[in-house]
Design brief:
A hairpin with a 5-residue loop joins β1 and β2. 29% of the residues are buried. α2 packs antiparallel against α4. The protein has a three-stranded antiparallel beta sheet. The chain is mainly α and 224 residues long. It is built from nine helices and three strands. The protein is globular. It has two domains: 58 residues, Helix Hairpins; 100 residues, Iron/manganese superoxide dismutase, C-terminal domain (minor pseudopilin epsh fold, 3-Layer(bab) Sandwich). It catalyses: 2 superoxide + 2 H(+) = H2O2 + O2.
Length: 224
């Protein structure tokens, strides 16, 4: 009887160990295949209206960004980037991996730069740096919108800083990000048509001018 009981206990232990091992393998596989995930928005999908409409957020964030993330997770499997952080991938990759990593990073910064209670002007050291470079916040905004309007085709316009904290505006085509030039991206406006066409049609400049009303300067300043 004792022998039978001992055998049952051993078998139960083996079954539990097998289940635990399978769970660990499943979790490891999930971690590996879901390395990057869609960031949670700090606002509702309709909270940025009328500057950005709910349908635009649902498509741009929920569909476009999710596709970039899914593609990136699939593309990096079995490569040297499988366990790399997002910024490293953007700096060191090319081709399809770069395109999807760049767009993932770009959109993460983009969507987390907005707030329904945003707008106004930056403060503190960032405000000082803007005034030092452009003379005033209004001058900076005009130059930023002009740069974004002038991007040919699809791309981004960025406010970035160098290692000394000096600011500059950069125009990047397609999935470009100033991080590839040794700069730190602080604020990016998406000028791909899917970012604004439902709300502004072909009026890119109008879209860019309206975005200042929803900028979360606390988030931008934290990157500086």
């Amino acid at each position: 009887m004792k022998k039978i009981l001992f055998t049952c206990i051993m078998l139960s232990g083996l079954i539990i160990s097998s289940v635990n091992a399978q769970n660990i393998n499943n979790n490891n596989q999930k971690t590996r295949t879901m390395k990057f995930e869609l960031p949670k928005l700090p606002y509702a999908t309709n909270a940025l209206e009328p500057v950005i409409g709910q349908q635009t957020i649902e498509l741009h964030y929920g569909k476009h960004l999710q596709t970039y993330i899914t593609n990136l997770n699939n593309l990096i499997q079995g490569t040297k980037f499988e366990n790399a952080d997002l910024e490293t991938i953007v700096k060191e990759s090319d081709g399809a991996i770069f395109n999807n990593a760049g767009q993932t990073l770009n959109h993460n910064i983009y969507f987390l730069s907005f707030s329904p209670n945003g707008g106004g002007e930056p403060k503190g050291k960032l405000a000082e740096a803007i005034n030092a470079e452009w003379g005033s916040f209004e001058n900076f905004k005009k130059e930023f919108v002009t740069a974004g309007t002038g991007v040919f085709g699809s791309g981004w316009v960025w406010l970035a800083k160098d290692n000394a904290g000096k600011l500059q505006i950069t125009k990047e085509p397609n999935a470009g990000n100033p991080i590839t030039k040794g700069l730190t991206p602080l604020l990016g406006f998406d000028v791909w048509e899917h970012a604004y066409y439902l709300d502004y049609q072909n009026r890119r400049a109008d879209h860019l001018a309206e975005l200042w009303k929803i900028i979360d300067w606390n988030a931008v300043e934290a990157r500086y």
